Fold this sequence. Notes:
With 203 residues, the chain is α/β, with parallel strands linked by helices. It is built from 6 helices and 7 strands. Strands 3-2-1-4-5-6-7 form a 7-stranded mixed beta sheet, sandwiched between helices. Strand 1, helix 1 and strand 2 form a beta-alpha-beta unit. The relative contact order is 0.16. 5-O-phosphono-beta-D-ribofuranosylamine (GRF) binds next to helix 1, strand 5 and helix 6. The site of 5-O-phosphono-beta-D-ribofuranosylamine (GRF) has 16 residues, from helix 1, strand 5 and helix 6.
Amino acid sequence: MNKDNDVPSVEPVVLGILGSGKGSNCEAILQSIHDGELDARVGVVISDVPDAGILDVAERFSVPAQYIPPGKFATRLETSAEEKMVHVLRQHEVNLVILAGFMRVLKEPMLQAFPRRILNIHPSLLPKHPGREAWKLALKEGDSVAGCTVHYVDDGIDSGEIIGQAEVDIFEDDTPESLHDRIQRAEHLLYPMAIGYFVRGEL
Ligand code: GRF
């Protein structure tokens, strides 16, 4: 029996996707489920930005979508907002949280509610270039490869245990936009694949 603090332990895996932006990774995950390549369902999509594209993506796939006002801080949720997020995720029977462009650091309420059950995708080959706009740093520092990383979320910034990575080349004539596009195309393959490993207990 589940205690109140436990995440639901019954398969199939139910994803809760959190994002602040356009939602292309969310779309890739939903498409992969729709195509029968990923054996999971999405219980709810949540955003801290009222008009984020990710909410429209959810609607297009007929998935419940909800905006949760983040409160007064710029880089994290107010505790009451984070507790509300836990509540909404539980209401929708979520047992694996997927960060897909969610621009706030998660704290105790979420980390305690979903221990080792929160994944993130980051646009660099971690541990290189954590933080925002990592592809710009890769260009600035003259790297010859860039890429993306799926990792578990802990209380640091892009610091959790690495699950998988995909590399992309950097070309001499790359702009921040062209490199970011190439990285995102790699993300759209890597994230559903990494979630698949988790779902099948193969990590
Ligand atoms: C991705 O590039 C991801 O690496 C980063 O935020 C971006 C989200 O893009 N964490 P999208 O909203 O999934 O299109």
